[in-house]
Specification:
By secondary structure, the chain is mainly alpha-helical. It is built from seven helices and three strands; from the N terminus they run H-H-H-H-H-E-H-E-E-H.
Length: 173
């Protein structure tokens, strides 16, 4: 089931309705936003599908009920039918694998509560090893993400000190 694809169709329909001057209730927008957050949580490693999936479906069903009733009323039955077909195709879309979604990098997993973290986008590949060295010298943990970002986590004061040193190195180049 393509939950994210469904979310996108609903989001697109909201944009179309807004262009037609339709006011979207705050509850509908809140449900759409909550669904997006839950979809992101669902796509993280170690998430509990049995708890999250029903909530996502509930949020999406709530949004769908309002949107298609409103679309039929404001856009006409023909256009609403086209949107129904789009959501039907989105439902049939295959679910994406969690591993392929890690590159988006919104949620960090496996970090201790209370630790700080910073995600660094490396513009200069030559600086990559120096970033890792400085972070380790400050007693911080370093990991790489598939997106090419480096994540440094640990004590906030140590992170600040490491970031000062990294900025100095980057300026000298």
């Amino acid at each position: 089931m393509g939950l994210e694809e469904q979310w996108r169709v609903f989001n697109d329909l909201i944009l179309v309705l807004r262009k037609k001057g339709v006011q979207i209730p705050k509850e509908v927008m809140k449900d759409l936003h909550s669904a997006k957050i839950m979809i992101s949580l669902l796509e993280t490693k170690g998430s509990d599908e049995s708890e999250i999936l029903p909530r996502v479906e509930s949020y999406l069903n709530s949004v769908e009920g309002f949107l298609f009733y409103t679309a039929e009323e404001k856009l006409g039955k023909g256009v609403a039918g086209e949107w129904m077909e789009r959501i039907s195709r989105a439902r049939r879309a295959p679910a994406r694998e969690t591993e392929g979604l890690a590159a988006r990098g919104k949620f960090l997993t496996g970090k201790r509560r209370g630790d700080g973290w910073v995600r660094i986008e490396e513009y200069d590949p030559a600086l990559s090893e120096e970033i890792r060295t400085i972070a380790r010298e400050e007693g911080l943990e370093v990991s790489s993400e598939p997106s090419g970002h480096t994540v440094i986590h640990g004590d906030m004061e140590s992170i600040r000190e490491a970031m000062k040193r990294i900025r100095e190195k980057a300026r000298r180049r």
